[in-house]
Amino acid sequence: MDEQLAENVATVQQQIAEAARRSGRDASEVCLVGVTKYVDVATTRALVAAGCRTLGENRPQVLWEKSSEMQGLDVRWHMIGHLQRNKVKRTVESTALIHSCDSLRLLKSIHQAGLQLDKQVDVLLEVNVSGEAAKHGFSPDEIESVIEAVEPFSGLRVTGLMCMAGLGSDEQDVRREFDLLRQLRESNRANVPKNVDLRELSMGMSRDFEVAIEAGATLVRVGSSLFRGLR
Questions:
Q1: Distance set, CA 9 to CA 32, 78, 130, 214 (Å)
Q2: Domains with residue ranges and CATH for the chain
Q3: How far is CA 152 from CA 104, 148, 193, in A?
Q4: Segment (H or E) for 146
Q5: pLDDT confidence of residue 141
Q6: N or C: which terminus of the chain has fewer CB atoms within 10 Å of its end residue's CB?
Q7: 104 burial class (0-12, 13-18, 19+ CB within 10 angstroms)?
Q8: Quick one: pLDDT at residue 169?
Q9: Measured between alpha carbons, how far is 138 from 142 in angstroms, rounded to an integer?
Q10: Does the pTM of the predicted model rise above 0.85?
Q11: pLDDT (tens digit, 9 = 90+) per residue, 174-220?
Q12: Regions of the chain short of the pLDDT cut 70
């Protein structure tokens, strides 16, 4: 398993480097977030040993359990799935970044948890770029007002935007959706509050992370490509 994981990580990192080069960027500008939602703790540990030290989990309870069992390892945990407000405090205690902030009520809860823990929590605003009713996230038209609304939330820091391409989107649609997220970032970077800087773009998964990098992604959330070939 260890050899296969190391080979998979190297392959994905090479794909990241090639996509970055195609878009005139350096591979160091892109962080690989290894999505471990379908694997157990032993496999997650092996992934870290293979060199992937930024890990993403979709379910808060699993993130709590894995981060607890893997204490002492050089790992940065990211919460990338839907987060309910009653799970905020424990999640904030365990994570370096929350990608999936999709409502002002959630942002306020994260801010309050940050104040209680005496830390400024790094978060991303999730944007529904495909317009699918089943997807979480702010509409693109809401982002400017959300950025204004979080100014008093000193317990958090908005470091960027996040999106998922539409389930039925072809490559042309995916590229358009990722370009939209980048354009939203660029159009909202000026005159932001002190707790907003929008340096990050979290977009792209196993099926489309190369397109995402070409569109400007700084964080790519890759799962199945890292575990290909494992028994």
A1: 9, 18, 29, 20
A2: 2-226 (3.20.20.10)
A3: 12, 9, 9
A4: helix 143-149
A5: 97
A6: C
A7: middle
A8: 78
A9: 6
A10: yes
A11: 999 999 999 999 999 998 999 999 999 999 999 999 999 999 999 99
A12: 231
DSSP-derived secondary structure letter, 136: -
Query: Residue 231: its pLDDT value, please?
Result: 66
- Distances in Å between the Cα of 58 and the Cα atoms of 36, 91, 95 are 8, 11, 12
- DSSP line for 61-100: HHHHHHHHHTTTS--EEEE-S---GGGHHHHHHH-SEEEE
Instruction: Residue 191: count other Cβ atoms within 10 Å of its Cβ.
Output: 8
What are the tokens at 91?
A: 């999640």
- 109 near 91, Cβ under 8 Å? no
Could you read off the pLDDT of 75-85 as tens digits, one per residue?
999 999 999 99
What one-character-per-residue DSSP string does 16-70 give? Answer: HHHHHHHTT--GGG-EEEEE-TTS-HHHHHHHHHTT--EEEESSHHHHHHHHHHT
Give me the count of residues in the chain: 231
